[in-house]
């Protein structure tokens, strides 16, 4: 089965640039796709200094949906948004004041990759942090998802003026250009050894994937085989067990509700997916979560996206008012989301 490789290098233009991230892409692109992915063959997607968070999300979502192993190489810099103080990958237009709207939220990586089977996804990262983000990460380690192996480093702000270099990623690329891909832990150690004294100031990331009896793997296998009813049945059992053990508003129960919303999407049932995301968003708000909390925004955005894919006009009309009500409370990051729902709903009601 072919693998997928996503090469993402991003940093702001101008004085806010901490690292010249894109300079590593020619070195990575010179590595054979099969060596980058560890599979016999691979599709490689390259994103060099992208401008829009949604463009990155679209490419990440497509890569996450592909079967087979996925390797994501990320070089860039982390910054916090001022409202929620959550880490974002800064993009070309990002400034400290516009992080929330122009940078890529790191938790979107976790969200998009969470349904992939254990051991099927690897992140290789070379990240620089500004002073505020560096301090934040000492108390709040970067969360890249429990199903994903993560190798790399986070570097503090450069002490000298000017942009730093993605030297860890360059070391990884140089090792891989030999045509041999060692086991990832070995590759990481070899790259770190090439950093020399620089490594002593870095946060080194070596998160392996936990093994034995993970239900997500069985569900993902059923989806890949086209057994969508079986996948949903498995997820429903875990959801019911979580409700009995922890209550319907618990994180465990909501997690399995989110899994079922995604499974409905994979099965092509946009109405069921939309309805489930609406339920999840409402439950999170009822539990006291803020309207701009990442999980609430994600649920509202996904409900909105799935509503737009419903072919049956009657079902779209039925779900539209609930989505409009949710958008009043959770406007999300995209401007005009509520206006879009109301406009589409008017069209549906006049047809």
In short:
The protein has 351 residues and is of the alpha/beta class.
Plain-language structure description:
It is built from 15 helices and 8 strands. The protein has 351 residues and is of the alpha/beta class. It folds into 2 domains: 3-207, Rossmann fold (3-Layer(aba) Sandwich); 215-350, Serine Threonine Protein Phosphatase 5, Tetratricopeptide repeat. Strands 1, 2, 3, 4, 5, 6, 7 and 8 form an 8-stranded mixed β-sheet that branches. The chain starts with a strand and ends with a helix.
H-E order:
EHHEHEEHEHEHEHHEHHHHHHH
Structural class: alpha/beta
Number of helices: 15
Largest sheet: 8 strands, mixed
Number of strands: 8
Look at the structure and give the CATH class of the largest domain.
Alpha Beta
Query: What is the count of structural domains?
Result: 2
Low-pLDDT ranges: none
């Amino acid at each position: 089965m072919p693998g997928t490789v996503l090469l993402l290098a991003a940093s702001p233009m101008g004085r806010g640039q901490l690292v010249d991230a894109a300079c590593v892409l020619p070195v990575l692109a010179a590595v054979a796709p099969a060596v980058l992915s560890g599979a016999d063959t691979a599709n490689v997607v390259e994103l060099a200094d992208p401008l829009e968070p949604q463009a990155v999300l679209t490419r990440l979502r497509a890569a996450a949906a592909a079967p087979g192993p996925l390797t994501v190489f990320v070089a860039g810099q982390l910054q916090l948004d001022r409202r929620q103080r959550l880490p974002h990958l800064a993009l070309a237009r990002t400034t400290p004041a516009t992080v929330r709207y122009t940078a890529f939220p790191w938790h979107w990586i976790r969200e998009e990759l969470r349904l992939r089977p254990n051991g099927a996804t690897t992140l290789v990262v070379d990240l620089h942090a500004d002073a505020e983000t560096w301090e934040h990460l000492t108390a709040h380690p970067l969360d890249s998802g429990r199903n994903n192996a993560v190798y790399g480093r986070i570097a503090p702000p450069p002490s000298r003026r000017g942009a730093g270099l993605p030297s860890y990623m360059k070391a990884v690329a140089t090792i891989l250009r030999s045509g041999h891909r060692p086991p990832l832990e070995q590759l990481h150690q070899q790259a770190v050894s090439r950093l020399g004294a620089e490594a002593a100031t870095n946060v080194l990331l070596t998160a392996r994937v936990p093994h034995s009896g993970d239900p997500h793997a069985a569900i993902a296998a059923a989806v890949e085989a086209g057994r969508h009813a079986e996948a949903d049945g498995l997820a429903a059992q875990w959801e019911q067990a979580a409700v009995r053990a922890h209550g319907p508003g618990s994180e465990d129960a909501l997690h399995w509700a989110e899994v079922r919303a995604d499974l409905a999407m994979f099965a092509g049932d946009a109405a069921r997916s939309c309805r489930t995301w609406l339920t999840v968003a409402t439950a999170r708000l009822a539990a006291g979560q803020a309207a701009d909390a990442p999980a609430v925004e994600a649920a509202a955005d996904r409900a909105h996206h799935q509503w737009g894919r419903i072919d049956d006009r009657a079902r779209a009309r039925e779900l539209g008012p609930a989505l409009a009500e949710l958008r009043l409370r959770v406007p999300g990051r995209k401007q005009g989301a509520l206006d879009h729902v109301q406009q589409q709903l008017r069209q549906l009601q006049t047809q």
